[in-house]
Amino acid sequence: MFCIAEKRVTKKNTMNETDLHFDVAVVGLGKTGLSCVRYLSKQGLNIAVTDSRDEPPELTNLKSEFDSVPVYLGEISSEALLASDQIILSPGVSLENKSVKQVIEAGIPVFGDIELFCQQAKAPIIAISGSNGKSTVTTLVAEMTHNAGLKTCVGGNLGTPALELLDEPVPDVYVLELSSFQLETTFSLNAHASVVLNVSPDHMDRYETLNDYINAKNKIYYGQGLMVINGDDDIVKAMNEDSRRCITFTLSKPEGNNFGVIKEGDEAFLCQGNVKIINQKELAIKGEHNIANALAAMALASSLNVPFEIMVDVLKSFKGLEHRCQLVKTINNVSWYNDSKATNVGACIASIKGLCELGSIILIAGGDSKGADLSSLTLAVKQHVKNVLLMGVDADKLAKTIGSVVACEFVPDMDAAVSKANQIAAPGDLVLLAPACASLDMYKNYQERGDMFVKAVNALEAC
């Protein structure tokens, strides 16, 4: 284990290049990077910050709060890193970055904010990862534990940076959403209960192989806590360790005391073993993928003895998060769904399959595929989609992947996509924004993309 709390004083702290020295360098100045600076400054450490961007998002706040902290911008500074005893790497920066590789080869410890958090956390951790559904399950678990009377702190990859949670009084439980990027640089996680919800190819612009991505996700299961396993995902099932406590969730009838679905005629019930917990129809969130999310959340919450009645109340009232299979509105009996967070193929397929029973789908897709293999999208489109409207840098790649299985049309922007979808939609249809791609080729982030979709849909009703 690395420990950042010990300040070394054997070298001079000066800005001269010949004897430049820092106790720790923070790489990346987004929300996470700034939270690291705040945390480390409380330890009395001599800190440097470096970022490849000329104007990183939190530069103004850093200068306001820590005007004496040296900042190296425009590229990640090898000089600053090599002059540091330890490196805190923001999740957006790859371990394959040339400057980062230099310090690793030099034997300088490199880790992330979640590693720091795990070293200091004094309460049980519920840890949640997966290619899709992380934020939904994190929010569900946090609401379940909170409503059960447990003091709950929630954050990580969702909302509050993990280190800022340490500023609060020690809770009964931490609920953390963790990305593969965060897990790469985490070594001390020993969660009370953890889950990889699912795995589908994502971030292939960062990982050399799918196995590299899988191995990063698998780190969430390190330790001795309860492993919650998706019994319907072969990749996740292979992560199971026979020597560990394990509980599974499945969309089929469960074995033993696991979580799953019991079907009785036209009715389906989410259950644990043979105990029915809630009728599927009572879930406020819709779609097959959200049934799996609900089951995973219940499995995690059960590890803290949250009563079923509390889980049911949350599942009846939780209508989902923005930009995640969100019903914007229904106009002329055409329903418009915003799933801008579907930034990979797996999420797009889950969205299509989750909504296909509600009507024929007109799909709006495209953006930056991040080097992913898109071929698995073809079957879902062929089975459930009647038209596809394509935009963004990888529109051509998507069109070639889908081929002639469905009518495709290129559109220049979101307004044009919504306008065209409105022209071809028939009563009872669904228009679904589920891009299967990242947004950064055209938008600041997936939220802005989703907001543009919502704005365009709302403009239709005003016409």
Keywords:
463 residues, Rossmann fold, Protein-Tyrosine Phosphatase, Chain A, 3 domains, 6-stranded mixed beta sheet
Helices and strands in order, then pairings?
Elements: E1 22-27, H1 31-42, E2 47-51, H2 59-65, E3 71-73, H3 78-82, E4 84-89, H4 98-105, E5 110-111, H5 113-120, E6 125-129, H6 134-147, E7 152-156, H7 162-165, E8 173-177, H8 180-184, E9 193-196, H9 210-218, E10 226-230, H10 234-237, E11 246-249, E12 259-264, E13 267-272, E14 275-279, H11 288-302, H12 308-317, E15 326-331, E16 334-338, H13 345-355, E17 361-365, H14 377-384, E18 385-390, H15 395-402, E19 407-410, H16 414-424, E20 430-433, H17 446-462
Parallel strand pairs: 1-2, 1-4, 2-3, 4-5, 6-8, 6-9, 7-8, 9-10, 10-11, 16-20, 17-18, 17-20, 18-19
Antiparallel strand pairs: 12-13, 13-14, 15-16
Helix pairs in contact: 6-11, 6-12, 13-14, 16-17
